[in-house]
Amino acid sequence: MSAFTHLDLTGFQQIDRFAWRDEQGTVMSVHFFNLRPDLPAPLAEPAALLAGTARHTAGAGAGLIDAAVEPVDGVPALRQLLKVRHPQGHGQVFIGSCTVPRATCSTVLKLQAPETGPTGMREAFIMAQLGPDRFYTPSPFAPDATGGLPYHWADHEQYDAQFPQHPLTLIRAKLRRLLPSIRLDERFKALPSF
Question: For 41-69, how does the pLDDT look when each residue is reduced to its tens digit (9 = 90+)?
């Protein structure tokens, strides 16, 4: 089941019922969860929501790069961009997602792309520019978050133009293109709010 009735699939080839891949290796999938969302706070409390999300992400060994509450087809949603360690131990996998929660269920668009080939070049280049003392900074969402992958300047959008084929750049751009194209089932939209 999916609450999505429209999504711009330009450039993607279907690989499963609810999954697609593009020529750059980005995998896109849509999900429906028929249970109450486990978000740490209501969307109407963005500071608490984003802080809780950053702490949860760090606690799971990952790192929250960016997050915001923004509408999808007129319904409030949580957009996230995060990084996880590559399961094979080399480099990172970047994940972009958008969760549209309702009181008793949610639907999620997920994009993921791993680093391939030589890894860490983006980080090394930006660290060389800024120096190690300025490179790492506390999470702007939860400065007290500990564990997980560190928050640093190389993940900032301002560096995407210098690394146009980096998976983080690609995920960020695809989220920006795809989210406005989403149309949700009217029955899903009519459900009670989260």
Answer: 999 999 999 999 999 999 999 999 999 99
